Amino acid sequence: MTESTATSAFQIVRRPLDLRFRTVRLAARQWITPAYVRVRLEGVDLRGFDSPGCDDHIRVFFPELPPESIDEMRAAPSREYTPLAWDPDEAWLDLEFALHGDAGVGATWAATAEIGSVVGIGGPRGSAVLTGRPDGWLLAGDETAVPAIRRFAHLMDADAVGRVLIEVPTPEREIEITAPPAIVVEHIYRGAAAAGSALSTRLDALGEAERPPGAVFGFIAAEQSIVRAGRRLLFDRWQLDPERVIVKGYWKRGEPEYHAPH
């Protein structure tokens, strides 16, 4: 069944948000794997924080020294990340960071900053909110997409069907994803190959037989090169509606300032 003949079980709704700048402190660090770390940020500025869309991005500013003004904070190096979990009343926010071989300013900070270190966060600026119930799911990405994949998986009900593909370097770097029983969670190992290459190969191997029936939601995000393989699968072979899928490069090799399109 193609998307055009499937029941419209869900949609992606765009929502603008009020852009707000917040100052927070590093409160805790938890190593998920030797190259993947979760941090908790705390601060009264996080009261009222919200992130309605699973693929939301906030911009995190990393000053070398405690800034003396908001303008000084805004001038610090910054990168974009997906909020993982938060409590707007208790005023905390969890983020996860993937540490690549050429760890940038954000990953280095997440791995080494002293507890109590100050950072700034801005956003999210807007959200793409998944409403309704997809008949099937395909979530795929490298380590940088894991927070968004975790959030999408949290939306699934107990009867959800589909597949989750996560590219990591080795079996020792697998990142656990919690999903309903009928969701197949598969880790793909790239070894020393370029990030995204193993995932692209796996996506190219998925055919019509692997397509869940009905209205399928697809989310594919990794290094920018993944976009071509993702579109070949979702648009060409599975014939999904481009307005009801998300395919994007979360980062781009050799361009540390690159950020995913919103």
TrEMBL record:
Highest rank taxon of the organism: Bacteria
Coiled coil: none
Domain FAD-binding FR-type: 19-131
InterPro entries for this protein: FAD-bd_FR_type, FNR_nucleotide-bd, Riboflavin_synthase-like_b-brl, SIP_FAD-bd, SIP_fam, SIP_rossman_dom
GO MF terms held by the record: oxidoreductase activity
PANTHER family attached to this UniProt entry: FERRIC REDUCTASE, NADPH-DEPENDENT (PTHR30157), NADPH-DEPENDENT FERRIC-CHELATE REDUCTASE (PTHR30157:SF0)
Protein name: Siderophore-interacting protein
Organism: Microbacterium oleivorans
